[in-house]
Design a protein that fits this description.
homodimer, 348 residues, alpha/beta, two-stranded antiparallel sheet, 9 helices, globular
């Protein structure tokens, strides 16, 4: 009788715990969620009322205001989610493209888990930054700290430049999409809400902050970068081969300045370059992809580097534009990247 | 013998599962991390090159550029962390103050877990937004979408207005802090990096987005708001008593417009108002706190509302300035808020 009670209690205990466990396993066991700011410096502004007037520094009550004082400028915001137990060897950084910020790697415009959740579930600590003057990094006042004006990207430009379709203001005022596009068309405005104005002459500031960010990490990282972010990722892979142990470039467009960067420095670093579909529909993309071959991947292969170049349609993944990491088949492309990381020994 | 095997197996099973469980319990069991954009609308810009020139729309190559096209404006970014199992009845929203964005509730400037982690660990789903035109919400171009210029807050102004000390440029050029301040002084620049420029005439846009955000939620919420955010939180508690089930105001300064808002509508909503230390050191704060008593809490008490007013020094918590939720004793104040929520039946 006593034995029976023990058996029953033990089984109930075991079973109830079994019942609780899978509910944890289905989600994420997270050690810490947090953020930090890195880089930047203090700057002092000292101008006369006359100068303030000339710069049209008028407050909402119509009065000239003085911007004199000390400000931080050039800093970068970094958000992180750390797992209790990782399967990846290194943290995974996600560097966004121009006119966007880190939010683009979170939930997709059509409300599905984005690459942040995908790679967390695959066992990576994930770090997402907003580049200098974008999003939570904050911007500096123009034209008295930054010297130029910011620019915003219109929906018309996003539609065509990002290869969603041929024209935004098409027949009957409706956008014309490419047949077979993977972009979640009915959520285009949701995507457009992610847009942030950008300064076009801040690349040196942004790159300086990325280097400080890599240097602040206590371990090397793997970097996924998109569009404008790719320029900084390829440069950083060369400048910090000890800090960047793998690079995934999504639709890079800026050629590497081979006079300034010695590509042999990244020849031990596995590199994956991914382009979507419809490149000839926006001919500049064919030219940009060619310039990446000419300045980055061809020289790197020649130097004995580990390069994987993927045009998605050639591996049967069709219909993607520039924003491939958030389009309807984003999980398929994420899995492709994950498999490449496994093959390249970036997982434990 | 068979019984013994079953007992042993059952106990081993139960114990091993017990052994695994605490490693999850020490961190967070997270269901989902994500974000969305809410509110905003499409706006079309159509101007001549002459007008663009007059607005000084010059790109980095020195050429006039056309901003013509369609843009999203007025949207708000919301980040969320959802737990596998909550202990709170409602999600907890955190609304930031002026010149900052949602990052202020994440890791503190001195690198400790901020209120986001504290309240996640206490069992709340946590939603953190960036108000319209701040941080990841993006801003609209001035002066052709937004009509005025943004303003940035200098470190000099932060230091005194936020009651960290009496002067930023003190003797020998060094900042003078209040004796006993809880602000992590050696991390003041880290805090200043959180600063984002703000427009001073966007309150109606911001409030509209907060209402859309509350309406988008499928359940009511509890709102923690700081500084400028308090204005929107008190208004929303009145406009949406079905959506706001508890309000915690940290250092509000804008009196309620009692001609426009019927305070009796929030009389079922528990309200906690918290002020820090050193109010008389910056006399406007005494006046601002008085205006909150006059327009919000006194009338609400008169109407039979559930109001808790706390001057932290009066409960033995000393040395806090305006940024009390991120100062060195931030966990002590968070625990105070958590206890208040428990007392006010906001936990399961």
């Amino acid at each position: 009788m006593k034995n029976l009670v023990v058996i029953v209690l033990s089984v109930v205990l075991g079973t109830s715990l079994l019942f609780i466990r899978p509910s944890y396993a289905a989600g994420l066991a997270v050690k810490e969620i947090g953020s930090f700011y890195v880089g930047g410096e203090s700057v002092n502004i000292d101008m006369s009322e006359e100068e303030a007037k000339k710069l049209n520094l008028i407050d909402s009550t119509g009065k000239v205001y003085s911007p004199n004082g000390t400000y931080e400028t050039g800093q970068m915001y970094v958000n992180y989610v750390l797992l209790k137990k990782t399967k990846a060897k290194y943290p995974l950084m996600m560097w966004h493209g121009g006119g966007l910020c880190g939010s683009t790697y979170e939930t997709t415009p059509d409300g599905r888990p984005g690459w942040q959740m995908f790679f967390l579930k695959a066992g990576h600590d994930v770090y997402i930054s907003d580049s200098v003057e974008r999003g939570r990094s904050g911007f500096s006042m123009s034209p008295y700290i930054f010297k130029t004006q910011p620019q915003a990207r219109s929906k018309e430009e996003m539609w065509t430049l990002f290869r969603i379709g041929s024209e935004y203001n098409g027949p009957a005022g409706k956008p014309v999409a490419f047949p077979g596009t993977q972009f979640p068309l009915e959520y285009f405005d949701q995507f457009a809400k992610q847009g942030v104005p950008r300064w076009t002459d801040t690349d040196p500031l942004i790159y300086a902050a990325y280097l400080k960010y890599l240097d602040r990490m206590t371990t090397p990282s793997v970097v996924i970068a998109h569009s404008q972010g790719c320029k900084f990722a390829m440069q950083a892979a060369i400048d910090r081969p000890d800090k960047v142990k793998g690079v995934i470039l999504l639709e890079p467009y800026t050629p590497l300045d081979i006079k300034k960067f010695d590509i042999t420095r990244m020849k031990e670093t596995p590199l994956l370059v991914i382009y979507g579909d419809f490149l000839p529909n926006y001919p500049a993309w064919v030219k940009w992809a060619r310039s990446i071959k000419d300045t980055l991947t061809d020289p790197l292969i020649k130097a004995g580097g580990d390069v994987t170049w993927v045009d998605l349609p050639s591996v049967g993944i069709k219909g993607n534009g520039h924003e491939l990491y958030l389009e309807k088949n984003s999980d398929v492309i994420a899995q492709f990247v994950q498999d490449w990381m496994t093959e390249h020994k970036l997982m434990k």
